[in-house]
Design a protein that fits this description.
Layout: H1 2-20, H2 25-33, E1 42-45, E2 52-57, E3 67-74, E4 82-90, E5 97-102, E6 110-116, E7 125-128, E8 137-142, H3 153-159, E9 166-169, H4 196-207, H5 210-218, E10 220-223, E11 234-235, E12 238-239, H6 249-263, E13 277-281, E14 285-289, H7 319-331, E15 336-340, H8 368-380, E16 386-390, E17 396-402, E18 419-425, H9 434-438, H10 440-451, E19 459-463, E20 468-474, E21 478-485, E22 500-505, E23 512-514
Parallel strand pairs: 1-10, 8-9, 9-10, 14-15, 15-16, 16-18
Antiparallel strand pairs: 1-2, 2-5, 3-4, 3-6, 6-7, 8-20, 11-12, 13-14, 17-18, 17-19, 20-21, 21-22, 22-23
Helix pairs in contact: 3-5, 4-6, 7-8
Bound molecules: fe (ii) ion (FE2).
Length: 516
């Protein structure tokens, strides 16, 4: 008995130490200052025709408690016409994450939902189930939101839309970097994130941003990660921005992955750590969400001239994911096959933009083996209906997907011979683009170099100076992309610049200009 008495206070201390390690003190303060037990709002994700994931995170008065949370789903904004709901518990082990799959819904329907504890309720979220027939679709497509380099105006603009099915997010949802005084907004913690508490706190800081919170509240997200959810230029066994004295890489990767899944509603097979998956939007589209980073990516090659670039033993996807993707693409009966992808898929001579390398070895250009295996599938199929959406490069591009744009016998832009699909690349939400990163002079020299037909004959559009997102519209006739650029990211504003559009006709012969 005596022994127990002395042990009890110690156990209490251990429990509170564990609970306190959820977030850094500054983040905890910011979250508490909202006065809500749901300071991070609500979110939904990965819709299917009859079900959707719903998400929130509770911040209970005591972090050692297990918390009971109820939720309700309705067809109206006042939550009177209730069609679903239930009860669950959460605790500090998951940083009080609440994620449920609401089943039994109707296809192509808008729903409203809310979470409750005994003493508080969340904001009311809106979501939409996937379609079951062949109706037209619209997605907002975005990537690369560095909190420090600008305001999330593009998220704010997407939130205001009432005409989209979902937001496809292509990675770099957070950045791992420490802070610098000269930036627009400062990161918390101020140091590079390494521990689970660090990664959780960084997501928390981003999710307290009003524009991002509103985008999650009003639209389902379909999300993949890129490198910065881990560290710059991540591959399976390391990252450019991971040094040996920064702890064990496997451990860091585990923290990063755990925090991602605590914050982003993603459909996973039986709690597996795998990100890759597919979703159907009726007969109109099948989306293939891939993991180009930690599932199978081999260590990058340094230079464009390195023959290892063509070594088929090196992979972007890894054998298991590649097999899944190849089978999925070949078996798909959808009108459009959409590759939801992180780094640039088409070959691209970037000149000075890629520095001495000319080509981006972190993109598919560095992994020719896996790229050609995917192109084999598309080429063997008579249907030209591949749409690749891409982020990562902080600039906007419209590209014919073709095996080798420089080979005149296999690709002809004018006639449309050799076109296998279209790639639409979104600019960043706020991460530095070409002139912000490399200076105005480099940007001025690089853009005409890249746009020259003799170097990149398959390139139709390039914007290397603005920030924003894309609107992807899928219809029987065509896949149309409209780039939406914000006027500024240096102050909060929802003003946009003139729109620009391109379309890939179904089963067509390359990109065509369209009025936005
Ligand atoms: Fe990025």
């Amino acid at each position: 008995m005596r022994f127990l008495f002395t042990l009890l206070p110690l156990l209490g201390l251990l429990a509170s130490a564990q609970a306190q390690s959820i977030f850094h003190p500054e983040i905890m303060q910011m979250a508490r200052a909202t006065g809500s037990e749901f300071p991070f709002g609500v979110a939904s994700g990965d819709p299917e025709p009859k079900n959707v994931l719903l998400w929130t995170k509770v911040l209970p008065p005591s972090l050692t408690d297990t918390v009971e949370v109820n939720w309700v789903v309705a067809t109206d904004t006042t939550l009177k016409d209730v069609v679903g709901g239930g009860k669950l518990t959460t605790n500090s082990a998951s940083a009080f994450t609440v994620q449920i799959e609401q089943q039994g819904l109707e296809p192509s329907t808008t729903y409203f939902y809310c979470f409750f504890t005994a003493t508080d309720s969340s904001a009311i979220g809106r979501t939409r189930t996937a379609s079951q027939n062949g109706e037209d679709l619209r997605f907002a497509v975005a990537s690369c939101a560095n909190y420090q380099t600008g305001y999330f105006n593009a998220y704010g603009h997407m939130a205001k839309r009432n005409d989209i099915n979902a937001i496809l997010f292509l990675g770099d949802y957070i950045y791992e970097y420490g802070t610098r005084e000269d930036l627009v907004r400062l990161h918390i913690p101020a140091t590079e994130i390494l521990t689970l508490e660090d990664y959780r706190s960084r997501y928390a800081q981003y999710r307290l941003d009003a524009d991002l919170m509103e985008a999650h509240r009003l639209h389902p997200f379909i999300t993949i990660w890129d490198d910065h959810e881990f560290a710059n230029n991540t591959y399976v066994d390391g990252a450019d921005n991971h040094q040996d004295d920064e702890d064990d890489w496997e451990k860091r990767k585990g923290h990063a992955r755990q925090a991602f899944y605590e914050w982003i509603p993603v459909r996973r097979q039986a709690e597996s750590s795998k990100l890759y998956r597919s979703l159907n939007y009726g007969s109109m589209a099948e989306l293939f969400m891939i993991d180009g980073r930690v599932e199978g990516r081999s260590i990058p090659v340094e230079d464009f001239n390195d023959v290892l670039r063509y070594d088929t033993a090196r992979t972007m996807l890894g054998a298991t994911q590649r097999m899944w993707l190849k089978q999925g693409l070949s078996n798909s009966k959808a009108h459009w096959r959409v590759l939801v992808n992180d780094v640039m898929f088409a070959p691209m001579d970037l000149g000075k933009m890629a520095g001495a390398r000319r080509y981006n070895m972190d993109a598919w250009d560095g992994y020719e083996g896996d790229r050609s295996r995917i192109l084999d599938i598309i080429e063997n199929d008579s249907m030209r209906n591949l749409v690749v959406v891409t982020g990562d490069i902080h600039t906007a591009w419209g590209i014919d997907v073709t095996r080798n744009p420089m080979d005149k016998t296999s690709y002809n832009r004018r006639k449309g011979n050799g076109v296998l699909g279209a790639e639409f690349v979104t600019s960043s939400i706020s991460s530095p683009n070409l002139d912000e990163m490399r200076g105005k002079l480099t940007a001025k020299l690089a853009v005409p170099y890249i746009k020259a037909r003799k170097r990149n004959p398959h390139l139709y559009f390039l914007n290397a100076k603005d920030h924003g997102y894309m609107l992807l519209e899928l219809t029987e006739k065509e896949a149309k992309c409209t780039w939406v650029f914000m006027k500024s990211i240096l102050k909060p504003s929802l003003k946009i610049r003139p729109l620009h559009s391109l379309a890939f006709p179904h089963n067509g012969r390359g990109l065509e200009k369209r009025n936005p």
